[in-house]
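Let us begin with a simple case.
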Amino acid sequence: MPAPVADLVLTGARVIDPETGLDGVRAVGITGGAITSVGEAAPPAREVWDVAGQVLAPGFIDLHSHAQSTTGLRLQALDGVTTALELEAGVLPVAGAYARAEAEGRPVNFGFSASWTDARMHVLDGVPLVADASLDLFATHQSLPNWRGPASDRDVGRILDLLADAVGEGALGIGVLVGYAPDSGRAEYFRLAGLAARLGVPTFTHTRFISTAEPGTSLEGALEVIAAAAGTGAHMHMCHVNSTSTRMIDEVAGAIDAARGRGVRVSTEAYPYGAGSTVIGAAFLSPEQLPRLGIGPQQLTYLPTGERIADGRRLAELRATDPGGGVVVHFLDEDDPADLAVLERSFTLADTAIATDAMPLVAPGGGPAPDSWPPRPDMVTHPRSAGSYGRTLRWLVRERDLLTLTEALRRSSLLPAQLLEGAVPAMGRKGRVQVGTDADLVVFDPDTVTDHATYTRVAPSSGFRHVLVAGTPVVRDGELRTDVLPGRAVRSGAV
């Protein structure tokens, strides 16, 4: 009986599957959006691509992408991403966000957590949650008076009910920006963790504190997450340990490692940059809080104007007039070897996923960036939004030899899938190159793949020759295809 004819076969590549340990030249057959063969001999196919000399691996799964526009996701596709999830901040209403993305189409797979901050803004400040709301509700309502502070037991109950309903609508977990509402109660956070445990979904936390000064250190913030996991049994994911831990990364990593050794379900992620990005109205960026981060206003770049903020007076002015304005926070100096060593230690913690914290594009003056391709040359954003995986493969693998190629690929694909698949069975088909798994694949040159984005220039990575989503090439021969939008929704509980 003749072998079935595949839609597409890729031949000659070094195929790396992080789960089985496969690392060898294979032919990979794809039919109907799934991998149908992985073998030494190529099956009959309607189309064959010769990718000799390249690496073929699972497409990258970004757990932390705020760049959920078509343009933002196209930049990520050019960086090897096939699934980009908004899990730290999340959205509300979740059903509306999924419906909007599905109606518009997306170049890569997408999914959302339920937003704790949006729920708080709704319950405590009356912000409406409407089905066609944009995904930047959090930035828009930074200046409202109540959402950052304590809530009554009754209001906490209302907040948690909203989150539970969102999980019922397919939310992949609960996004908890507690670092932006540090005066919210510890009891509320613990109750939220208990809810997540009962629902069987993870939480994704921006920790409460960023500081090396007592009280309220980065270590204390991390210990709150660990304690919630230990006390409830919930899976608690700690976002961007590189930026929230800063110079306490050794203490934070030690606590996480010890907790995991005792069976506490705590997972982590990091991105390979010494600067972060957020809204200028963030609680931890007030002039009086900056010394606790070990920086001053001059380490902040206000994206709408491109200015390095001169002093505390100017910072206070911008926080008052544009609290949702984008800012880059240079918490480590990437030109300082000692600071780079601190950043590198974020990746020596075992099982730390690579996640980008990709940010939306910002237009001059802070206006909305047009969702069009290619991005206008006057658009700006943090370079992690376009270059995190190219930089990982260049810097952490080729130049620094901090991660092996296989380990970097595992942290970029299989590990994120495994962190989610308990709540999201569909993730069991991602992050792998195996028969029956989704044909979300990346083909790249390991010797030349690199990032090009900088803090002043939006530029896609290069070296990613092909990026396939459900078997459809979104990037072909290094060029983005704008005529296809094959991304599919990823929902909790869905098979």
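The second case is a distinct protein. As before, the sequence precedes its structure tokens.
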Amino acid sequence: MKHFTFSLLVLLISFSTFAQNYSGPESVEYDFANNRWLIANKTNRQILARDSDGNLSLLIPADSIGSANPHGIEIVNNVLYVCCGSRVKGFDLTTLEEVFNVNTGGTFLNGITHDNAGNLIVTDFTAKVIYKLNIAAETSSSIASNLVQSPNGIIFDEANNRCVFVNWGNNAPIKAINLADNTVSTIITTSYSNCDGIAVDGDGNYYISVWGGNQCVKYNNDFSSSPVQVVSGLNKPADMFFNIPDMVLGIPNNGNNTVTFVQFALNVPEILNSTALVYPNPASTQLTVELNVNSAAPHLISVYDMSGKWVQSLGSEAFVFDHGKITMNCESLQSGTYFLHLHGVDNMEMIRVVVEK
């Protein structure tokens, strides 16, 4: 079910005149804490940073990455995790020091995501295996093996306690692995060949990058509707990321050393920037957000953290809407900045709130 009102505005192709250049860009991730895009350069084994003005700089050099080409990247708690051959390496984004290095025993680690229990979930393209890595314990275990197709991009679906992943080959299926029992199931068999990356927006719509046809397509949140093409004219599009607060989809083009940034437009008026809670006042668990437009009540509020990761969803029974004010319980939220997506509210899509306890 789709509630965002957006349209495709701009396709921005990376510049090649900076001191650093894209070289086989394989994966992108948005670093919300530092307001920048991170890009895994496969060919020269580097991680680049792209600032808000489009300037590229070297973040992690080849010597730190090692001899294996970097592929999937994922940020968890200010650490950038990188798939490097059989290993997953982690680099502190403040010090840039290596703080994690686990050998899975795999062959070609490609896609990477993380769950809400302190684990990385990683696909092995060549061995057709999915690994779970415990970050704290620095251990690795196989949770799916002997897969029929080569798994590629993967993303955590917290609402269903599963990971959704795309696959290589003709009529490439989109599959899921249930994290409760590690069973693998097919969600849908596509008509596409060689699906590479997967990303999700604030409504739970899935975006798939497809080498066959050099395009990006979108499925609705339960894959019940036919896919629609979002972007054409790509060149071997790889592992994508959807920056939910800014509504920007980043797509690395492995074939021509560019990154495409798709800006989606939201019809959003100026709204409340932040609201603070005071703790331990018992009343502080109630957060009231005042909208400056007249609108119907939302039927669902989705809460995302600063990384764009889904935290929780609140049905209409979990909040009160009265005269343009929304009052909701924030007892379960830790201190920090969150984005509220108001489903079904005209001209109002995302609100940023600050919770202080």
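The chain is about 0% helix and 50% strand. Helices lie at 62-65.
Keep these points in mind for the review questions at the end of the chapter.
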